[in-house]
Amino acid sequence: MKPAQDAFTELLELVKLEQLEVNLFRGESRDIGTSRVFGGQVLAQAVLAASETVDERLIHSLHAYFLRAGDDQSPIVYNVDRSRDGRSFTARRVVAIQHGRPIFTLSASFQLQQDGLEHQTPIPEVPPPESIDVRDEIPSEDLERAPQKLRRWFSRFGPFEFRVVVDQNPFDPQPMPPVKQLWFRLRGHVGDGQVIQRALLAYASDFHLVGTATLPHGISFMKNHLAMASLDHAMWFHRDVNLDEWLLYTCDSPNASGGRGLARGMIHDQDGRLVASTAQEGMIRVKKD
Questions:
Q1: Residue 123 lies in a domain
Q2: What is the pLDDT of residues 176-186, one digit of tens each?
Q3: Active-site choice (197, 230, 253, 277)
Q4: What is the per-residue pLDDT for 170?
Q5: CATH number for the domain including 24?
């Protein structure tokens, strides 16, 4: 695996965009050991592309659809449609294109910072991150025997540090409630700007989420022939976020049916503030052979 600082620097380089024309941007791709571009990468790059066309307003919600598997060996072009510029809210639509075809669409809304009513769901009672043992998802001796592509997949967390409250052994998965809680933070400092902070939060939100729908069934990609792919992703940004500090990601799956699994997430900071909420549905198929 790469040193954490190298992975962090690589992530910052990955999400940088090149402006090709007005409303037109290009982003690079990265092979992280899957057969397609990681969904969080496309989410983050699309958020940054839309943000480049908006002044003095921050993204507060996004709704995205994954249309086709992205090619991790080719760049992605982001075409931004300036749908509406209102007095308080701004709407943007982004189409991500590879090889002449759309692979992803994003609708996003931006808002001027405003005061209003306040309430939120309280942070769950879980052990603090400092009390959770640091451990690898797969023991290093098992990882060394794994194919190179799988080793790259497990290095995908490099820019982030994760502490899982109750973990599942992917080599011996047992049925458990469809709930997963984990602390995470960046392994570096990106500055205080909320544009990049929220884009990288979108990137991280794609980890662990829809996989929560597999927990009650005692299955994992290490023991079963699983085919999983994100279908859509929604996110709401409630308050300013700081990825330098620990954040608690609480995911649950209320339903799986029809070859799809639904998962929801809440992201709290250590002060108990609810900074974001997520929802995602993914295709989940267990192959018989």
A1: no
A2: 999 999 999 99
A3: 230
A4: 77
A5: 2.40.160.210
